[in-house]
Amino acid sequence: MEKINKKIISQSNSCEEIKADKSSIIIFGASGDLTSRKLIPAIFKLFKRNLLSENFYVLGVARTQMNDQNFRDKTKNIISNLCKDEKIINRFLKIIYYQNGQYNDINLYKILNDKIKYLDDKYKTNGNNLFYFATPPDIHSIIIKKLGEVGLNDQKNNFKRVIIEKPFGSDLNSSNSLDDELHKYLEEQQIYRIDHYLGKETVQNIMMLRFANIIFEPIWNYKYIDNIQITVSESLGIGHRAGYFENAGLLRDMFQNHMLQLLTLVAMEPPASLEPVSVRNEKVKLLKSIRPFNNKNIDDNLVRGQYISSKIDDEIVPGYREEKNVAKNSCTETYVAGKFFIDNWRWSGVPFYLRSGKRLKKKLSQIAIIFKDVPHSIFSHDFINLEQNSLILNVQPDEGFSLYIQAKQPGSKLCLNTLNMDFKYKNHFDFDPPEAYERLILDALIGDQTLFVRSDAMKISWELLEPIINKWKKENTLNFYEAGTWGPKESSRLFKNGTWYPLR
Ligand SMILES: NC(=O)C1=CN([C@@H]2O[C@H](COP(=O)(O)OP(=O)(O)OC[C@H]3O[C@@H](n4cnc5c(N)ncnc54)[C@H](OP(=O)(O)O)[C@@H]3O)[C@@H](O)[C@H]2O)C=CC1
Ligand SMILES: O=C1O[C@H](COP(=O)(O)O)[C@@H](O)[C@H](O)[C@H]1O
């Protein structure tokens, strides 16, 4: 069984970044969009920051015909925007290799087996391999089966780990089947289910804010919190990903993973330690406490929408049904808002409002903690609407947080005004935070699974959404919203009192 590396925890004392163990990364789907836009830049940045071992190489695998030199040329195009130092670029290109082949052809894996052995010897990686599945999801189980057939899953005194991209299945059944297939060849400690939101600096800071400060934890419960609102909005449409999105829809694309993970971090109990097992146990406990949806409560608690053509920044953008490769009568949702309850002592009666959508007014991810009214307002005769205190965690952009409180406006008359205390990362830390993929790839190389989704958490997330997926398959309850707005007006019906917190 793989020994979990605990080095990451000691970082809090030294703040020194931990270097990856000797290893290789073998990327399946190396000719694709994710590899070019995220993975190669992230690996290069780690290399440039000297966080990769000297005993390290990258092997790209895909069907596209390319040789090492072609893949190096492609890589050079990607990284030359990130660095002007030719020496660093050339050193990096030397450790890049490529192999083409068909994912379901055993010959590809026999060739890979030989090539990996050769490169492992050359780079003295101790046979440590991290396989990254950046392929369409239906290919994942084929790859793991074939890797198993040639023994590339087999760890002896080394490690063989797999990072799996989302979506992890498309419903409970397919997710369970994929998991079963993975577990035929791998132990859970070898499997890294990635959710890139967990690698975002500000998302990781939610735990620090909550559990490294005494002032927040005592008020982080039903006694003081009125409601919590989590918004992940995007101004872009679906781009070139219609093939995937048409079948997935926003509930699977964003709620099953990122939204539920954000909810979990905001609401979970303090873990006993930062050990991966402690943190992940608390997350699972929380997911299990979310009140289940059923045919009776779905319509009251969820709203789905689809964007229609309108203007964003003076430019007319097409509606979802006019996007390339989208059916003219598509009922795929591009927006979801939901009201969630957590049935445990801490969160009794506190609604969690979650919303996410494409083609909204702007790209923004934020968590708004809205506190209760004061129990008795001595100011209420003058100020009927005393604004509730709120704490806003800005995940992106403008990473940081703001506390909104009431304060006296200067002057002889007693007037109150809302005052915001803003903290922005960029003003405080003279440091460009690493991209999510950088952090997560480094963690996988180190062997830290804390920020990856465990099998049981994945299963519970799908279980929670399954009734919604099934109901929406049968019924047409789609609301339309103009691109460039904050989504369908119907979402306000989720609120008995109040409304969405204004997005600033
Ligand atoms: N792109 C993104 O921003 C994000 C992607 N993801 C996930 O990452 C994974 C990869 O995404 P992305 O790079 O965008 O995907 P691509 O569509 O670019 O596919 C990746 C590679 O897989 C191969 N491929 C594509 N279609 C097939 C097919 N039908 N059969 C076999 N191989 C195929 C192609 O390589 P070749 O033809 O050379 O074999 C392609 O270069 C997916 O699981 C996706 O859901 C997750 C979050 C964000
Ligand atoms: O996983 C996904 O995330 C992106 C949004 O990620 P962000 O880091 O840019 O906020 C989303 O566009 C995509 O549809 C989804 O698959």
UniProtKB/TrEMBL annotation:
Gene3D superfamilies hit by this protein: Dihydrodipicolinate Reductase, domain 2, NAD(P)-binding Rossmann-like Domain
Domain Glucose-6-phosphate dehydrogenase C-terminal as annotated: residue spans: 207-497
GO molecular function, one term: NADP binding
Biological process per Gene Ontology, one example term: pentose-phosphate shunt, oxidative branch
Active site: 258 (proton acceptor)
Residues that, per the record, bind NADP(+): 63, 166
UniProt cross-references to PANTHER family, sorted A to Z: GLUCOSE-6-PHOSPHATE 1-DEHYDROGENASE, GLUCOSE-6-PHOSPHATE 1-DEHYDROGENASE G6PD
Protein name: Glucose-6-phosphate 1-dehydrogenase
Organism per entry: Oceanotoga teriensis
Lineage: Bacteria, Thermotogati, Thermotogota, Thermotogae, Petrotogales
Gene name for this UniProt entry: zwf
